Amino acid sequence: MHNLYTKFVRILGICKQFSNKFVDEKGNIPRRGPVPKFSELEVVALFLAAESESIGSENRLF
Q1: Would you write out the chain's pLDDT as a tens digit for each of its 62 residues?
Q2: What's the farthest any 2 CA atoms get from each other in the chain?
């Protein structure tokens, strides 16, 4: 499984299972202010997927 997107989707599903009572339906921690386009759960899942692919730097990821 060397596909970053596939790992991202699987890790995002796991993150949603364990954090369902802490986040809203969009995957963000409830707080005031504007709603970001990229949810907090998606950010966590992306960096976990990148680390599993041995991409340690955000510069190499993007």
Answers
A1: 468 889 999 999 999 999 888 888 888 888 898 988 889 999 999 889 888 887 777 666 66
A2: 38
Q: Is the dihedral of CA 32, 36, 42, 48 positive or negative?
A: negative
H or E element that contains 48:
helix 40-52
Q: Do 9 and 46 form a contact (C-beta atoms < 8 A)?
A: no
Instruction: Tell me the chain's radius of gyration from C-alpha atoms.
Output: 13
Cα separation, 11 vs 22, in Å, equals 17
| CA atoms of 21 and 58, how far apart (whole Å) | 29
Q: How many CB atoms are closer than 10 A to CB 10?
A: 15
Q: Within 13 Å and on the Cβ side, how many CA atoms surround 4?
A: 11
